Structures are given as C-alpha cells and as structure tokens.
Amino acid sequence: SRPQKVCLCPFLPIHPLKVSTCLYIIQHPAEESRVLRTVPLLAACLPPDKCKILVGRRFNEDRYPELATVCRNPNTLILYPGAEATDLEEVVVMSSSPSVMIIIDGTWSQAKDIFYKNSLFRLPKQVQLKPSISSQYVIRTQPTNTCLSTLECAAVALSIMEKNKSIQETILHPLQALCSFQLQHGAQIHHSKEHLLKNGLYDKPMPKNKRKLRRMELLVNNIKI
C-alpha cells in the first residue's frame, strides 16, 4: 500500500516465517490512524493464524470469548514490564515453549490503561525483555533508550521463544528499510526523551503536571519507571 519507490515488499520474507508461537496484538484504537505503524510489518512477516490483531480499549469475556480462553491458558504469556514480570529468557528455560504471547500496542500510557483496566490481562504470566538492545525505530520518539516498538518487542520475544535468533533479524529487516526510506525523504532521527533530557536538548516546555514532571526527573536520574 506504499508508493513503488518506497515499497517495503522486497524487505519482507518471501514466505511467512514458520513459528509455533501465536501472537495476540491488543491494539489501542489510536494506533490505527498512525501512518508509520510497525504492526502491519509484523503481520506481513507471520502467517495469519500466528498474528491476531484485536483493536479496542476494553476487553471482557462476553465480547471476546476466544481471548478469554487464551488468557486462561497456562501456556499464555503477556509481555508487560514491571515489578511482577519475569524475564522471558527465564520462563522459556524453566518450562516448555509457551504457545501464545499477548502484546499491547500503543503508547506507554495507552498500554498501561489497557493492562490495568482489563482483568483478563492479569491472568496470564507477566514477562518482560531484558533491556539489552536500543530501538531501531529512530523516526519515532521513545521514552528511554531501551524502549522498543511493538514490532521490535515481538521480534525479540519470538526469537527467544522459538530459540532462533534469525527470526529477530528477519522481522527487523522491513523496519530498518522503513526508517531508511523516511530519513531519505526528510524525516529526522528522533532521540529518546531520556537522551534529550540528559543532554540538555529537550526543547519543549516542561509539563506542569507533577506526575509527568516526576517521570522526567526519574529519566534523568537513571531510575527505572
């Protein structure tokens, strides 16, 4: 659906990746209107039955019986960092390969709202990724240097769950091409908010909201938020 000269099809795998893990992408409605989204690229890399996208803010058992069943499955994981989350590598080592992973797609505040206001999402085991890589999604501002886009999270998670590092490289390939095309046509590299604050480059007015101001202070002082 892009102009021919910036087509991303040559950077996608010739055939959908063969994976045993099924991803459920819970997408905030606001993401649908964004021009530069990563979930369509992710879906193009995987078989349709291994990447299911559900759009909405509220998910209950009556409206989403299939999702409710998935959330109650002991082999289902939800990727959401926090104090209650276990590193994904540890979970994969300790148990047989999980069959389903839920990933929330949205800004950090949107993801937090979806996670905490839907009780279904607190049924699966909560996991997180180790902050070992920096985001390559350089055309969109991230809160910190180690925050990843939805596609990047899925790429890393699938490579761990499938025990296949090449999966990560294959899924990141179209994202790298997307960013390259955008930079060639006038886009600018977006450093993380953390980087801008620490280097005195943040040029927007500081928020008056005390909670947001406190979050910025934590970023500057290397405190996990």
Q: How many individual β-strands?
A: 6
- Unreliable stretches, pLDDT < 50, 5 or more residues? none
**SSE arrangement, N to C:** EHEHEEHEHEHHHH
Compute the average pLDDT.
82
Q: Span from first to last CA?
A: 37 Å
Shape: globular
Beta-strand percentage? 5-15%
Helix percent reads: 25-40%
Q: Which strand order spans the largest sheet, edge to edge or round the barrel?
A: 2-1-5-3-6-4
Instruction: Give the structural class.
Output: alpha/beta
Instruction: Please tally the helical runs, counting DSSP H or I stretches of 4 or more residues.
Output: 8
**How many structural domains can be distinguished in the coordinates?**
2
Provide the gyration radius in Å. Answer: 18 Å
Organism: Oreocharis arfaki (tit berrypecker)
EC number: 2.5.1.25
Family: Belongs to the TDD superfamily. DTWD2 family.
Catalytic activity: a uridine in tRNA + S-adenosyl-L-methionine = a 3-[(3S)-3-amino-3-carboxypropyl]uridine in tRNA + S-methyl-5'-thioadenosine + H(+)
Describe the structure.
The chain has 2 domains: 4-184, no CATH class; 191-221, no CATH class. Helices cover 36% and strands 12% of the residues. The chain is built from 8 helices and 6 strands, in the order βαβαββαβαβαααα. The longest helix has 20 residues, at 165-184. The radius of gyration is 18 Å and the shape is globular.
In summary, what is this structure?
This protein has 225 residues and is α/β, with parallel strands linked by helices. It has helices spanning 39-45, 65-72, 88-94, 108-116, 150-161, 165-184, 193-198, 210-220; strands at residues 22-27, 51-55, 76-79, 86-87, 100-105, 125-128. It has 2 domains: 4-184, no CATH class; 191-221, no CATH class.
